[in-house]
Amino acid sequence: MPLTARVEAHKVRWGILGCGWIASVFTKDLLVDPATRGVYDVQHIVQAAGSSSSLDKAKEFLADVGAPDSRAYGSYGELVADPNVDIIYVATPHSHHFANALLALNAGKHVVCEKPFTVNAEQTKILVKLARAKKLFLMEAVWTRFFPLSIAVREYVKRGQIGAVKRVIADLSLPQAPETHFADSHRMVNPDLAGGCLLDLGLYPLTWVYQILYHTQPEESRKAPSITGSMNLYRTGVDDNTVVVCTWPDTIGIATTNLYVATDPSAIGTPCVKIQGTGGEIQVAHPAYRPTKVTVIRGIGPEAVTESSEFPMPPGHGTHWEADAAARCLRDGKLEDDMMPLEESIVIMEAMDKVREISGLRYPESIESLEQ
Amino acid sequence: MPLTARVEAHKVRWGILGCGWIASVFTKDLLVDPATRGVYDVQHIVQAAGSSSSLDKAKEFLADVGAPDSRAYGSYGELVADPNVDIIYVATPHSHHFANALLALNAGKHVVCEKPFTVNAEQTKILVKLARAKKLFLMEAVWTRFFPLSIAVREYVKRGQIGAVKRVIADLSLPQAPETHFADSHRMVNPDLAGGCLLDLGLYPLTWVYQILYHTQPEESRKAPSITGSMNLYRTGVDDNTVVVCTWPDTIGIATTNLYVATDPSAIGTPCVKIQGTGGEIQVAHPAYRPTKVTVIRGIGPEAVTESSEFPMPPGHGTHWEADAAARCLRDGKLEDDMMPLEESIVIMEAMDKVREISGLRYPESIESLEQ
After folding, report:
1. I need a labelling partner for B215 at 20 to 30 A (CA). Which of A117, A327, B104, B344 fits?
2. 3-state DSSP assignment of residue B327
3. C-alpha span between A34 and A29 (Å, rounded)
4. CA angle (A166, A170, A176) in 5-degree steps
């Protein structure tokens, strides 16, 4: 038994706000024994779950994920009022994140909010300001950042293993031609739910661009890039093909996403992220959101040395690492996590705002609203 | 002996304006027997070459390429005045294309001008207007378009072999860190010679974007895309890292180029062009300017069928196909070639102008000048 296991694990009691697909993924991950991923210092308790539609829905959800004895609520208000809940995981469609996270913070709860944080950067700023005023923990649940694979890649870059990084190209495109895959009311293409590929898929390539070109910079000298980009708009008015170009003085990041084509059309593990340096390249195999393979090319030319590493997923889907990080922050009294700092969430939301502005994509006022 | 060989080949007498590297490549290609590439209907005669610096330079050039008996001139003015020259190939640095092509057209010669056509779109427009007024043939020497490989790829796309094309991503990046590879006066980075990666390298990925997303459209309905993009600027003020995003209503093309990183770092034939459709993908292996391998993925997913085709280069470097095309136009009395129409050259020059404008890259007035 490892040494760390002798220290009692810090227990965090979660309240799950929303009972849809991602809530189920996350909650099941909370219920996986952390020891299976080598984690002994924190533990997760699924204290409660709340559905906005009915108590039965919440009960059914808890039974389904394997936590039938946890508390079920038929409203979000009741959930966030539960004195035994330490932290709320916001798992609703992103059109609703702002309102739901506000509710939880106002109830005095710490919050982990699914990505994308909100619909626009101003909403995120309001949440951040509120959390800081109330001394509550707040984090955008960009799970990919917390993977051992991501941590390793950031380390490779920081150690200069591919020289100076000059460009990052990242893509997440899934062939789901909306005409045949989604009704116009589906969340992927429905403007009322902030549909489109940028917010849902594009956040992942953007995560790679920023975690390499921005996050690996010393914190005090990180500068937001200038942003341009473009979109094709689907018949419902949301984007189905988007490019975001992030330009720093010496580097450029290109994040792309598309609802019609495949990053990896022949399912052979095509690189979805290329981190290109003066002395080589790091390639991350598709998919950008949950990669398990990294190839490092050291040197350039026929003598370059190519080495691939696998990062197999331990039991669970992979959202548990962000939960572990949040639990450690709560244990240590930290109000935000270094891997996904609030300031960086804002900078990325601003990039998405900018490309939408360039392309004339604005969601209905009801969900762009800053009303608290 | 093939049937076509019985018809006498149409002979075109070339005058080579400029005696540098690309002049040598092109002239040697002119001297390759067209039969080695299956061409019997046209023939090329290297009638003369002109150097702006000295007669000896032109003589040396002609001896070196294997045409010691051709006429040598110590000035461009004498070259374009030679009544035995039908067509001038402009092979000077691109900062000088405008003036040199003007000189040739004004002397009543047909012109093939190396890529990029000129330094800006306005210069190209002046050349086009003049050529049309004088009923002279004019073409930008974008050799890659004339390769059997390019023709095949355009056919695949037109026949819908990968469904509807939604995105083209094309890159030409060569790891030539300018600090160590070039003096600041070198043409690659010298603003006085319109240095930087966009005009020299970026034209190739742009060629792929346009020959797929623009050129395969019916001629009457071709529309110029909206353009955005960005650049990093080198210490000399020219670009060393550039992205051009071309947006049509239903498709996006992304052309990238960089002087620090490699498109194909481990020299394994990494795709430099990805033509992504709803039913598969076409990949062209590096390099974008002279590719010899195409992979077509039909279908999406594990059942997709992947097929690679080689297009080995026949004797010569590969600029002979554009020369053949020009010769056929002269034979047929055509003033421009369908594969590289003048209007399309202008549209692409406008895209490059736009990205330079966005990034504040302007060459010295002497070479941006429209003075005739």
Report:
1. B104
2. helix
3. 9
4. 165
Say if the Cβ atoms of A267 and B164 lie within 8 Å.
no
The CA distance from B208 to A364, in Å, is 38
Place of tokens 């080198």: B234
Q: Can you give the residue ranges of every domain in chain A?
A: 3-142+319-337, 148-310+351-359
Q: What is the pLDDT of residues A101-130, one digit of tens each?
A: 999 999 999 999 999 999 999 999 999 999
| pLDDT tens per residue across span B4-47 | 556 789 999 999 999 999 999 999 999 999 999 999 999 999 99
Distance CA A108, CA B91 (A): 72
Portion of chain B with pLDDT greater than 90, in percent: 98
Q: Give the Cβ contact number of residue A368 at 10 Å.
A: 18
Task: Identify residue A293 by its one-letter amino acid code.
Answer: K
Which residue in A125, A181, A45, A175 sits closest to A342, CA to CA? A125
Output DSSP code: residue A314.
-
Give the pLDDT mean for A226-230: 98
How many residues are recorded in chain A? 372
The CATH number of domain A3-142+319-337 is 3.40.50.720: yes
Which structure tokens are listed for B161?
């072999």
Q: Is A358 on the interface with B (CB under 8 A)?
A: yes
Closest to B322 measured CA to CA, from B76, B135, B54, B137: B137
Q: Tens of pLDDT along A292-340? A: 999 999 999 999 999 999 999 999 999 999 999 999 999 999 999 999 9
Helix (H) or strand (E) holding B352: helix B342-359
Question: In a 3-state reduction of DSSP, which class is residue A170?
Answer: strand
Place of tokens 């070479």: B367
pLDDT, one tens digit per residue, over B151-182 is 999 999 999 999 999 999 999 999 999 999 99
Which residue ranges of chain B lie beneath pLDDT 70? 1-6
| Residue B7 pLDDT | 72
CB-based contact, B230 to chain A, within 8 Å? yes
User: What's the pLDDT score for residue A372?
Assistant: 87
Burial (CB count <10 Å: 0-12, 13-18, 19+), residue B295? middle
B10-17 sheet: strands from edge to edge: B71-73, B42-50, B10-17, B87-90, B110-114, B138-141
Using an 8 Å Cβ cutoff, are A131 and A105 in contact? yes
CATH 3.30.360.10 fits A148-310+351-359, yes or no: yes
State whether residue A366 sits within 8 Å of chain B by CB. Answer: no
CA distance A333 to chain B (A): 41
Q: For domain B3-143+319-337, give the fold.
A: Rossmann fold (3.40.50)
Tell me, what's the pLDDT at B3? 53
Q: What pLDDT does B372 receive? A: 87
Contact call for residues B113 and B97 (beta carbons, < 8 A) = yes
Of the candidates B231, B266, B300, the beta carbon closest to that of A262 is on: B300
| Coil/strand/helix, residue A361 | coil
> Is B228–A228 a contact, with Cβ atoms under 8 angstroms apart?
yes
Sign, CA dihedral A226-A230-A233-A239, equals negative
